[in-house]
Amino acid sequence: MSTIKYVNPLWDRRERYGFPISKYQIYTGTIVKDDFAEIYLDSGSFVHRLRKSDIVCIDDQDVEYKIPGNVKKIVEGSKGNQYTVERINGMISCSCPGYKFRKDCKHMKEIDDAA
After folding, report:
1. What is the reported pTM?
2. Helices (H), 1-112
3. Using CA atoms, how far apart are residues 84 and 72, in angstroms rounded to an integer?
4. Are 36 and 8 in the same domain?
5. Are 5 and 24 in contact (CB under 8 A)?
6. Are residues 37 and 76 in the same domain?
7. Host domain of residue 6
8. DSSP assignment of 35-101, as one string?
């Protein structure tokens, strides 16, 4: 079990709400996936998709993840199709059908090596 302290995504817009917004959220569960820009935490009821750049600490140990630079790359698929793989603010996406369906694909590995 891990406990993650995470910056509340509503914090920057807290004045727009008629109720108090806390600066941090605490998630407890099992880390099921730790990829390039995100951590997936299974809390039993939900799998939370947390951006690493918004994580403050894991199990009471401070962490700091740096957001890598933005990259856009054209890659060739196994059948000769061309797909656009992008990393924007640390988040990777691909224009292939596999990514649109699963939010994961083999083309995303191509961008990990890109500067």
Report:
1. 0.60
2. 97-102, 108-112
3. 7
4. yes
5. yes
6. no
7. 2-62
8. -SSEEEEE-SS-EEEEEGGGEEEETTEE---PPPPPEEEEEE-TTS-EEEEEEETTEEEE-SHHHHH
Provide the 3-class DSSP secondary structure of residue 12: helix
Report CA 34 to chain centroid distance, whole Å.
Answer: 9
DSSP code at position 45? S
């059948």: which residue's tokens? 79
Place of tokens 């060739």: 76
Tell me the per-residue pLDDT of 63-76, one tens digit each, with 9 for 90 and over.
987 767 788 999 88
Q: Which tokens belong to 53?
A: 């750049």
pLDDT tens digits, one per residue of 17-65: 989 999 999 999 999 988 777 899 999 999 999 988 899 999 999 998 7
Which two three-digit tokens encode residue 14? 């807290």
Short-list 63, 67, 110, CA closest to 86: 110
| Listed residue (77, 60, 69) closest to 37, CA to CA | 69
Domain count across the chain? 2
Alpha carbon distance 111, 107 (integer Å): 8
Distance CA(94)–CA(9), nearest Å, equals 24
Query: Do 9 and 50 belong to one domain?
Result: yes
